[in-house]
Design goal:
Layout: H1 10-17, E1 24-27, H2 34-42, E2 48-53, H3 56-66, E3 72-76, H4 82-88, E4 94-100, H5 105-109, H6 135-141, H7 144-155, H8 160-173, H9 179-189, H10 202-212, H11 215-229, E5 230-240, H12 243-257, E6 277-279, H13 289-294, E7 302-308
Parallel strand pairs: 1-2, 1-4, 2-3, 4-5
Antiparallel strand pairs: 5-7, 6-7
The structure holds S-adenosylmethionine (SAM).
The site of S-adenosylmethionine has 20 residues, from helix 2 and strand 2.
Length: 309
Amino acid sequence: MEFEHKSVLLDETIEGLDIKPDGIYVDGTMGGAGHSSVILSKLGANGRLVCIDQDEDAIRTGTQRIGSDDRVKIVRSNYCNISQVLENLGISSVDGILLDLGVSSYQFDEAERGFSYRFDSPLDMRMDRRQTLTAKDIVNNYSEKELFRIIKTYGEEQFAQNIAKHIVLARQKDEINTTFELNEIIKASIPAKKRMNGHPSKKTYQALRIECNRELEVLKESLDTMMDLLNPGGRLCIITFHSLEDRIVKLAMKNAESPCTCPPEFPVCVCGKKSKGKVVTRKPIIPTQEEMLNNSRSSSAKLRIFEKI
Ligand SMILES: C[S@@+](CC[C@H](N)C(=O)[O-])C[C@H]1O[C@@H](n2cnc3c(N)ncnc32)[C@H](O)[C@@H]1O
């Protein structure tokens, strides 16, 4: 399938990175290289760009888009390994890091990846197909309590309890193998009157995807490291697509700006925790009306920016 992907908040992110032509930049979620190719166009002969993605299809399509360029290194890895990736390239600090989180439209539209309830396919949902855990394993092996927890927490699904119960009942009869089998189970778990707000499977699929790829843990584990890797004046730009991700980013940036844990009545700081920099975006940047109309995937996007001291 031809790769067609509209990069979300493209101008706002490029402006947010405040690119220096001879700086070193990291795109931790290269995908189809939409953001990366614009970053590259702003770099001079001495600038460098490191592109990371854990998905082999993204590595292929992104590499095609970027073409051959000595200033660029493309690495298949999880962005949580950023320190190791940079160390292997002999880089100790950088001027900007971008994360454009979540699944690309390419991954969604590729039926066999199992990310979408729109196609009948095996339940997979792994971004990195070298990992063993799939959505099928989660659906067939997690306890009812664990299924409830992830569908409720990661999907913010009102009917999580009923969906978890129906999954467990269904799999007692036969293993659940495909997206369409799962769709039927979810549909039967939600009262007909309540199925008005979009596809009934939407929230459960989001939950399974987040669990399968450990999306929130990976994000939480990586943000401090990324801020530590920035040079003074360097920028961290993060685009999120749902409130769980946005909360993690907002909190990590706020804590990095004001980490002091001393009680307010203390005249001087004794905890010794020093600020790493400042939050550039008091409120997150959201897409324009025009972008939301042209690209429905952008409608929940939020960009937050942090600048290192
Ligand atoms: C929304 S797409 C990025 C699109 C890209 N900014 C563009 O403009 O073409 C997200 C990409 O991030 C990758 N990804 C998500 N989480 C990742 C992680 N923890 N480590 C590495 N890559 C990740 C996905 O495989 C996907 O290709």
